[in-house]
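EI: anyone free to look at a 229-residue chain?
SC: sure, send it
EI:
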Amino acid sequence: MAYRKPLSMLRSGKPKEQVSPPRAGLLELPTARLRLAAIVLLDRRPGVSEPVLSRVRVIDAITELIAQLSYVTDLDAPLQRLASLCDAVGGVWRVTYGEAASLIPLVPELVRAPPGVVGTWTPLASAQVGAEVGTTEFKWGAVSDAIAADGSVAVMSDGVLRVLAGIAPSIWIGISRGLSFEQLVAQAIADFDRPPLGDASKLVAAVIDELVREGLVVAEDRQTERGTL
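SC: here you go
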């Protein structure tokens, strides 16, 4: 149910205090139905004279938003819900500013701004949550939600958000497609070419080891020329 949320004010060494708009010196809310017009990440830097607006990629935005949202990890498919919300307002902004008063002229601009690039993300886990995803060699760990965008993958597991980058997204998605270790190496080479230094198999094995440590992959114990995974 939608409700008019009060401001949550941080207090040193104490729980957040809920403050009404009048108490905070803000204008009263209108009686009309309200809708979200923009999502803006605030980046205050003393000394900045004029505020600067820039767009934020969806996974970067979600990473920052989740740190500021209460109980979002208790929702079904929280990453997909946040990504859809970002799309609904035409993408996320970041504003770098020095003083709050300088933001006032930006509000009409933000409301009227044309949408940015949206719909760039892909859901990965909606049909696979709770199922064993992978092969007898590797499987996904316990995952509640995951999305891919801009070459990265955001994964929600055990209430913790992790962002995969580099060759990790290729490997993790490949595991969901049932690829063997040798096929994962071939996929990584196809996506990123052979590494200038080191052996591709060892690099892929190292990434899988890290995914196993983070609980995002479950690997069967098997002794091979690359070691135990």
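EI: The first strand starts at residue 7 and ends at 11.
SC: 👍
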